[in-house]
Specification:
Layout (H helix, E strand, L loop, with lengths): L1 H36 L10 H18 L1 H24 L2 H13 L4 E2 L1 H13 L9 H14 L4 H9 L71 H12 L4 H9 L3 H4 L10 H19 L8 H15 L5 E2 L1
The structure holds fe (ii) ion (2 copies).
């Protein structure tokens, strides 16, 4: 009986793979438009008291600055609104701790990084034969754009594997809300610079006095290493890479924070950063432009590039077979 249930759930998720990918694309589009609409230097004030007004102030600015683009932004936001409502309600401290325990106590799969990429490709794209761009295409486009710019080899590898954590969707996620979307800290006040901040009112941590103050369970400039970010493909892949690779700190930060838009785009939560994070922020921003803008129609020949990337993976993942 239980077996049937699990199989059914897996089958449903398989069918939903494309919808996860579509949601991720819509989230990406929102962030692309937001970046284009943004005034340089906007939201650099880290004062939390003023934060409550910053979302409205930003929206007003966007609306007046470019009406046409703002309309596109609004439409894109409409498409992701429901998704974020669910995410912001369910990403609690309790859920986060449980997800971390699950991660540490289970091995979901044992395979090589390349096999992981192929598996993700199959799971996400098989259900839709008309798909324009597969997961491997996005991975290769990002990696190749980084390589073309003469960036270090570890940086290229980040391009290849940064979204590999989406495998989580087929292991033990509860939905799309704990796999994709912008990330944010849990255990302290949800700032207005997070997209759709009003939807946090349904989160049980919102009224918890332990968690709803500026620092919550953290302390001033404690460092983001100590901060629990909402659980998703970024956090998951960061831990997989940290446990199994020799990738440098910058690479791990790029993987961990690539969806932490409230931080790397909106300059929120600077009061939790330590000196190390200041360096990491530069790295994350350098990576973000490749993630946002390397998506195009160019499809690389996977077989042609495979040997280059297999060698690159071997360089930083000494154990060929790793635990996901
Ligand atoms: Fe991602
Ligand atoms: Fe990506």
């Amino acid at each position: 009986m239980i077996h049937t249930k699990v199989t059914k759930k897996k089958f449903q998720k398989h069918k939903l793979g494309k919808s996860l990918d579509k949601k991720d694309d819509e989230v990406l589009q929102v962030n692309q438009l937001k970046l284009q609409l943004r005034k340089p230097g906007m939201a650099e004030n880290e004062d939390v008291e003023k934060d409550s007004a910053s979302w409205d102030a930003q929206m007003d600015y966007y609306k007046n600055a470019n009406t046409k683009m703002f309309r596109q932004y609004e439409l894109a936001c409409d498409r992701v609104k429901q998704f974020y409502e669910e995410q912001h309600e369910k990403q609690t401290v309790a859920y986060n701790i449980q997800a971390r325990i699950n991660f540490k106590t289970k091995t979901r799969a044992k395979m090589s990084v390349w096999e992981g990429l192929e598996k993700l490709n199959r799971l996400l794209d098989d259900s839709d034969p008309d798909t324009e761009l597969s997961q491997i295409d996005h991975a290769l486009q990002t990696a190749e754009a980084i390589r073309r710019d003469g960036q270090p080899r570890w940086f290229q590898l980040v391009g290849l594997i940064h979204d590999l954590g989406k495998l989580l969707y087929f292991f033990d996620s509860q939905g799309q809300w704990d796999v994709v979307g912008d990330t944010f800290p849990v255990g302290c006040k949800f700032l207005s610079r997070i997209i759709f901040p009003e939807s946090f009112k349904k989160n049980s941590d919102f009224t918890n006095p332990l968690y709803n103050t500026k620092y919550g369970i953290y302390s001033k400039h404690c460092g983001l290493d100590k901060v629990m970010l909402s659980w998703g493909h970024d956090e998951y892949m960061y831990h997989v890479a940290k446990n199994n690779s020799t990738l440098p700190q910058e690479a791990l930060a790029m993987i961990r924070y690539h969806s932490f838009y409230p931080w790397h785009l909106e300059n929120a939560y600077t009061y939790l950063m330590d000196d190390h994070d200041t360096k990491m922020l530069e790295a994350v921003r350098a990576f973000n432009k490749y993630d946002l803008y390397s998506k195009n129609d160019q499809q690389y020949d996977v077989d042609e590039l495979k040997s280059y990337y297999l060698e690159l993976i071997d360089e930083y993942f000494p154990k060929k077979v790793i635990e996901f």
